[in-house]
């Protein structure tokens, strides 16, 4: 498993990682069983984003990988402007979510504050232990406490497949990670307070800058109100060989912006989507929403120039207002053989002539076919119909809603804890929890659906999630613990026939043809403005799993719900003692967003 941080600051909270035979581990240059601690407040070197080719030729034995992280605050200037890039340990509580990992049998290690765990309080530690067998591909980790990910607590996590299970169908000689992110100059805690205050009609904070692998360079003369020095900043540098292809594992670790990414004068092959290997498809611009991952195979042009621009453009059409500090593009340098000159000289490559993207929408993946064939179930046992919207209610507060529910995490009493405790101590609740009274549906016996929308289902039922976006913005929805089949998407209102099996009445909109043979499988899908998306998955992983918009501001505004799978299994869990102790630690609430009651008595309609 390759695991690296975008900023390279030190970390804490230990992570022993049990790898199966087909999986392999790496943190910087550590050997099997070796412990390594990072204690440098600096940007990662370019070499740290190049994955080691030995992982494709060796077959290590099953082992436990142990990584020691100390999370703390540092001030860096990734693009010239100085700002704190971590605001965690010693200051605020935190957690780590392992984005895209199934956590099969270890739901309490999912790292989702208010859902599967209490935060790790300042001065305390927590050991995440989980197994990643059965998965390979490109994933990432990030804080799941308030908006801390926007302050820099993110990084890639790569699980290699075994040498005899190579599902990548385009050859390559080098394997690299590329992190793209929007970049704010103010701390997320301050921006979040502004965003959630009365009178803001979902006007998300507009990022002034963007980074590639934690790097950019700004003209400080155009930022007079900022403490800025670009003397030691640089653009991200990618040294490619002209003799073989290069795989780029691209991850959008940003809080808000969708990116359109290209390398001038290069076409490339799209070969992986959210950890699913797909048959290569040629494209020359890649749209990627927050939390999504794509692998592309870059083929060297023949003949080639020495230098080319890599351009990552934020799709600013979705931004709510104009930010005078905004630089919407961040550029990296791709070098073929011009070693040592790539930063000093400016590429003369040409931009693609076609019009750049002006709409925030998912990449068209309808033609992508997974290499490993997995048919979707022909029908669903149940349909979860979700209306996604932003509404202004009491005290002029704009909040995100799924149906009539706006999520408010209880950081000292997560949903998983409440369910297990109630099932153990209340016979009536245990009767409901076991599924004897509630086969599938919203659990109102334990949870207030206005703030904790928990859909409960027995294991091994096939669920459809039909998301109807009633908002004027795009929402990248992420489901924890699963990959889902993306069956259909479309503009306007979803056909009524998708809500029932079989249709109860004729639908005015024709039912779309569903690809059931081998549809795309992923964990984060964007639902465009005023559009709908139909997802399907088999609920075979017991636990409480979050489904939420991965735009950080929207998640904090409440655009989230939970799916409780296998309540009869979950109610009998005996979770580790250190997991339970998190909730009683002093400072566990430090850093959480203030509740809506802060505004009580003001501006009430």
UniProtKB/TrEMBL annotation:
The keyword Coiled coil does not apply. GO terms for molecular function: copper ion binding; oxidoreductase activity. SUPFAM superfamilies: Cupredoxins. Keywords: Copper, Metal-binding, Oxidoreductase. Residues 1-21 are annotated as: Disordered. PROSITE patterns: MULTICOPPER_OXIDASE1, MULTICOPPER_OXIDASE2. It comes from the Eukaryota. Residues 1-13 have a biased composition (Basic and acidic residues). The keyword Mitochondrion does not apply. InterPro entries: Cu-oxidase-like_N (IPR011707), Cu-oxidase_2nd (IPR001117), Cu-oxidase_C (IPR011706), Cu-oxidase_fam (IPR045087), Cu_oxidase_CS (IPR033138), Cu_oxidase_Cu_BS (IPR002355), Cupredoxin (IPR008972). Residues 92-162, 175-315, 443-568 form the Plastocyanin-like domain. Belongs to the multicopper oxidase family. This is Multicopper oxidase.
